[in-house]
Structure formats: C-alpha cells, structure tokens
C-alpha cells in the first residue's frame, strides 16, 4: 500500500534552496509540523560560512512568527532540539558549480544522503539585471539539477517556476513543458549559451567604456528587457525562469522532474495560522498603495481574474506532488498551482473589498491620523491610462512645477504630492502590466487529478491545497489584508 502524502516524508532527507525566502520557509515549517520524523533538512542559504548560514536561518526563518504555532505546540526547547537534530545549514550560492558548497565533507554527506531536492531559490525582481537573473534563474537551475543528478539517492527534483512563463496569453493555458529554445512567437530560437555570451560581451564593453556600477546596472536591466521582448516575454524574470525550465527539462536524464508553476502567491490560508506573509509583491503592492492613499488610478482589466494562491496551498502542493513523482524515473510533469480556473476572483471584486476594508480599518498616517483613501479609477487599456495620466498629472504637473518654483510655500507640497502619485502609478503599471491585463486562465488539471486520486485512495492526510475551498471575500477581509497590515506593515 502507498504511504500517505505526509507519511511519505518520514525518514527522507530533503534539500531546500532559497531557504530564507517566503515560499521555502513556509515549506520548512510545513514539513517540520506535519512530519517531525523527516530525517534531515539541508537548507541552502547565501552565506560565507556555516556560522553565518546558521545565523541567517535563525534570524530569518525560525525566529519568525511563522513558527509561533509549532513553538507553542511543542514548546521552545523541543523546537530548538528538533531544529538542531534535523536541520543542517548549507552556505552556498546556486550560481556556482555544486551550488557553491565548498566544505568537502558537507558536500559528500549531501550527495550521499539527499532523497529529494526542492529548488525554489530565484531572483523575483521583474526587471532584474540580465546577468544576475540569467545566472540565478537559468544557470542556477542547471547547477541544482546537476547537483541532484550527482547525488546517489536523489529520486526527484522539484523545481519551482512561475505560471507566467506562458507570456501574455489568453484562453486556457495548459500545463505543458517548453522545449529547449522554444520562443513565444515561434520565430528565431533562443540559444541560452549565446545569451550568456552576449551578457559577458556587454559587461566587457561597459567596463572598457569606464561605466559606473549604476550605469552598468541600468544597461544590464535594459538588456534583459530587450532580450525578453525579442523572444516574446514581457520581462526579464519570466524569460529567465522559462530558460531555467528548459534547462531542467532538457538535461534531466533519468531524474524525475516536477515543475511547479504558481501564480501570484499570497498569505497563508490556514496553516500554520491564517494571514502570515512576508514582503509585498504584485497585487499586494497595489492593495498597500491604495490603503496608504497613494493610488488614485490604475491600469487593470476589471473583468479579468486576478490569479492568486495562498502560500500554504503552494507548499502543500509541493509535498503532494513530490510524494506522487518520487522514483518516477525520467518523468517530467508540470503543475499549475492557481485559482483562476476553479475559483476565480476578479480585479473588480478585489477593488471593492479593499475599499470596504480600508474604510472600516484605515491605516494610520505619519501623524497618527487615519488615512481615508478615495476609490481608485480603474482603466482597462493602456491608451486610456496614458490619456488619463497626462490629463490628471502631466499638464497640471508642468504648471504646478513652475508655480512651485515661484511660490514654493503655496504650491510646493501640491506639486510633490502629484508627482509622488504619478510616479507610484507609473511604476506599478510598468512592472505589473503583464499581470494586470492578463487574459488567460490557468488550467490546473494535473493538480486536480492528483487531489481526486489522493481522496479516492484515502491518502489525503495533507491540509487543503485546492483553491475551491476559498471564500475570497472572507479571505481578503479577515485573513489577507489584516495579514499584510500585521506582518508587513507592522500595524
Ligand atoms: N512570490 C510569488 O508570488 C511567486 C509566484 C510564482 C512563482 N514564484 C517562485 O517561487 C520561488 C520562491 O519565491 P519567493 O517569493 O519565496 O522568493 P523570495 O522570497 O524572493 O526568495 C528567494 C530566495 O532565493 C534565494 N536566492 C536568490 N539567489 C540565490 C543564489 N544565487 N543562491 C542561493 N539562493 C539564492 C534568496 O536568498 P537571499 O535571502 O540571500 O536573497 C531567497 O532565499 C521562486 O522560484 C519564484 O520564482 C514566486
């Protein structure tokens, strides 16, 4: 008889990359809470030596509120004992061969013992420097795969990608892999090694021209966006992530591969407690800017779904899919972890819910007074957004700019206020446009099939990972926005 999904982790040794990141630390908490009889957790973090890796894990993972339930349930002492017995801090860097693990004995132990590799480390900046994103998201994925292949016992690499590797598409988006070199417009193939050579040549040129660090950073950011667009992707992040998927799929050999493609990850739905979150990304940037009274208008298609998925559901899905494909020689399976197909929430609803939330529970401004934000105007096309911003901000901005020089005390504040609002709206729109105007729906048939199979075999000892059970209104009002206020804005 097959073991249950959680039972499966018993006596297994796992490597988790990106351990200091949002998703991985939830995975670590889930594993230790659900299966304390896991054999060992090798947690890879960027650090110069063992001591600083251990320090980072202590400060950035185990000391977080995320662990308060486990701490309360088993007590401080037992949790500390569990961590020192099971957790091995690994100082490393995935851009390097052997993931930068330089301690020979540690490397040998890892290669002898690891059963499953969970690879979630990445740079998640949409407009990251091309050299940085290519090294981490693309070649880093290859380094992790090579490490997994060299490990004697490893029987699965679970690689975390993103649903938006599909580019700006519409209709139902299926869970299919990308072939090596495939592009979105089907024209000229992308050669990943040539991309790296291009990056190195450009860096040499910039050095020869005596460019400053700042100039080099801008040039490398521009290069990433240019190359991404050339092959059909809208930003450097999704382009370098898709090339990471290509490497992993193409060079996998007999190593079973699971590629998890989450959409926008939000706060915990229920485990270890509702509403835990770290950092402000994608749709949350918009919600927080609105709550702070800094968002007057925005570019978004109200009628489209905003595909978000709570982080604990992603972590649970990672455990369930790992259990399913462990030992599944040479398999290559893609899982969308998404909500837009089974239980969509529309941008229009998020706007209405956020207005209601901040009306009832406003954020406090610097003066300690409640901020009363006005309902933002949602514009659904780039042309409308450009027209609106030029009328609302640009023309008055020029006039106000002149007036503020002549009469600084009367007009200076007004000018600065408009300027801030304008810059905020433009920055958010520029970064998140591909997500906000996204017309596609992510088919999550593979995960749904797995859920049904688990239920039929009564193997469902994992907490929920189906978006069907989410009441979005309740989640936003009682879990997610309060979670942002407490854990991110510290209100
Ligand atoms: N968050 C989302 O909404 C979302 C949605 C879809 C997919 N994803 C994917 O989910 C995964 C996790 O995302 P996240 O939100 O948890 O990201 P995150 O919070 O930014 O964490 C990224 C982690 O990767 C580590 N990392 C970066 N470069 C590294 C390197 N060279 N060597 C070793 N570690 C490195 C970071 O370490 P440092 O602490 O040293 O920087 C950090 O621990 C990523 O693969 C991402 O693409 C995320």
Write the layout of secondary structure elements.
Elements: E1 13-17, H1 22-34, E2 40-45, H2 50-62, H3 68-74, H4 76-86, E3 87-91, H5 104-113, E4 116-119, H6 130-150, E5 157-160, E6 170-173, H7 192-208, H8 213-230, H9 236-250, E7 257-262, E8 264-266, H10 282-291, E9 297-299, E10 308-310, H11 311-325, E11 332-337, H12 347-360, E12 377-379, H13 382-406, H14 408-436, E13 439-442, H15 445-456, H16 472-488
Parallel strand pairs: 1-2, 1-4, 2-3, 4-5, 5-7, 6-13, 7-11, 8-10, 9-12
Helix pairs in contact: 1-11, 3-4, 6-7, 6-9, 7-8, 8-9, 10-14, 12-16, 13-14
The chain binds NADP nicotinamide-adenine-dinucleotide phosphate.
NADP nicotinamide-adenine-dinucleotide phosphate binds at residues 17-18, 20-24, 46, 93-95, 120-124, 136, 140, 160, 162, 241, 262, 264-265, 281.
Outline of the structure:
The chain is an alpha/beta fold and 491 residues long. Helix content is 50%, strand content 11%.
Task: Count the beta strands.
Answer: 13
**Shape from CA axes?**
globular
Overall pLDDT confidence: 90
Structural class by SSE content: alpha/beta
CATH topology of the domain at 7-272 and 307-342 and 440-471: Rossmann fold
Q: Spell out the CATH superfamily of the domain at 7-272 and 307-342 and 440-471.
A: NAD(P)-binding Rossmann-like Domain
Rg, Cα atoms, Å: 23 Å
User: What is the CATH class designation of the domain at 7-272 and 307-342 and 440-471?
Assistant: Alpha Beta
List low-pLDDT spans. Answer: 397-412
Query: What is the count of DSSP helices, taking H or I runs of 4+ residues?
Result: 16
| Strand percent estimate | 5-15%
Largest sheet: 7 strands, parallel
What is the CATH architecture annotation of the domain at 7-272 and 307-342 and 440-471?
3-Layer(aba) Sandwich
Percent range of helical residues: 40-55%
User: What topology, given as strand order, has the largest sheet?
Assistant: 3-2-1-4-5-7-11
Q: Ions, cofactors, ligands: which are bound?
A: NADP nicotinamide-adenine-dinucleotide phosphate
Helix/strand order = EHEHHHEHEHEEHHHEEHEEHEHEHHEHH
Protein name: Fatty acyl-CoA reductase
Catalytic activity: a long-chain fatty acyl-CoA + 2 NADPH + 2 H(+) = a long-chain primary fatty alcohol + 2 NADP(+) + CoA
GO molecular function, one term: alcohol-forming long-chain fatty acyl-CoA reductase activity
Keywords: Lipid biosynthesis, Lipid metabolism, NADP, Oxidoreductase
């Amino acid at each position: 008889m097959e073991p249950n999904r959680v039972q499966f982790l018993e006596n297994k040794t796992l490597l988790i990359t990106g351990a200091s990141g949002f998703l991985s630390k939830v995975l670590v908490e889930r594993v230790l809470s659900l299966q304390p009889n896991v054999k060992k957790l090798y947690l890879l973090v960027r650090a110069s030596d063992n001591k600083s890796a251990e320090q980072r894990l202590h400060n950035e993972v185990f000391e977080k509120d995320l662990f308060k339930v486990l701490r309360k349930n088993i007590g401080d002492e037992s949790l500390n004992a569990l961590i020192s017995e099971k957790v091995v801090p690994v100082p490393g860097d995935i851009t390097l061969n052997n993931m930068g693990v330089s301690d020979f004995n540690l490397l040998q132990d890892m290669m002898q013992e690891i059963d499953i590799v969970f690879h979630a480390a990445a740079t998640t900046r949409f407009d990251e420097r091309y050299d940085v994103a290519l090294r981490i998201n693309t070649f880093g994925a290859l380094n992790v795969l090579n490490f997994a292949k060299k490990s004697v016992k490893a029987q699965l690499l679970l690689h975390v990608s993103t649903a938006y590797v599909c580019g700006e598409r519409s209709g139902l988006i299926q869970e299919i892999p990308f072939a090596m070199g495939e592009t979105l417009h089907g024209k000229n193939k992308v050669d990943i090694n040539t991309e790296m050579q291009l990056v190195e040549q450009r860096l040499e040129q910039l050095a020869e021209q005596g460019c400053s660090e700042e100039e080099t950073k801008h040039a490398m950011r521009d290069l990433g966006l240019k190359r991404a667009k050339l092959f059909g992707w809208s930003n450097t992040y999704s382009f370098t992530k898709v090339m990471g998927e290509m490497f992993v799929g193409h060079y996998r050999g007999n190593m079973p591969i699971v590629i998890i493609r989450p959409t926008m990850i939000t706060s915990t739905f229920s485990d270890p407690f509702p509403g835990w979150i770290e950092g402000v990304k994608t749709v949350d940037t918009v919600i927080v800017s609105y709550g702070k009274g800094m968002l007057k208008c925005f570019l978004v298609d109200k009628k489209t779904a905003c595909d978000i998925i709570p982080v604990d559901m992603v972590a649970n899905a990672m455990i369930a899919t790992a259990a399913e494909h462990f030992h599944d020689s040479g398999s290559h399976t893609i899982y969308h972890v998404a909500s837009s197909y089974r239980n969509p929430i529309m941008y229009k609803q998020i706007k209405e819910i956020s207005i209601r939330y901040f009306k009832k529970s406003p954020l406090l401004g610097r003066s300690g007074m409640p901020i009363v934000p006005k309902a933002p105007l949602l514009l659904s096309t780039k042309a409308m957004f450009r027209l609106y911003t030029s009328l609302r901000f640009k023309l008055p901005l020029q006039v106000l700019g002149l007036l503020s020089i002549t009469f600084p005390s009367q007009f200076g504040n007004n000018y600065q206020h408009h300027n801030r609002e304008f810059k905020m709206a433009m920055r958010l729109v520029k970064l998140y446009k591909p997500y906000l105007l996204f017309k596609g729906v992510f088919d999550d048939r593979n995960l749904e099939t797995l859920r049904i199979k688990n239920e039929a075999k009564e193997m469902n000892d994992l907490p929920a990972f189906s978006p069907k059970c989410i009441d979005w209104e309740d989640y936003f009002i009682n879990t997610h926005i309060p979670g942002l206020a407490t854990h991110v804005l510290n209100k």
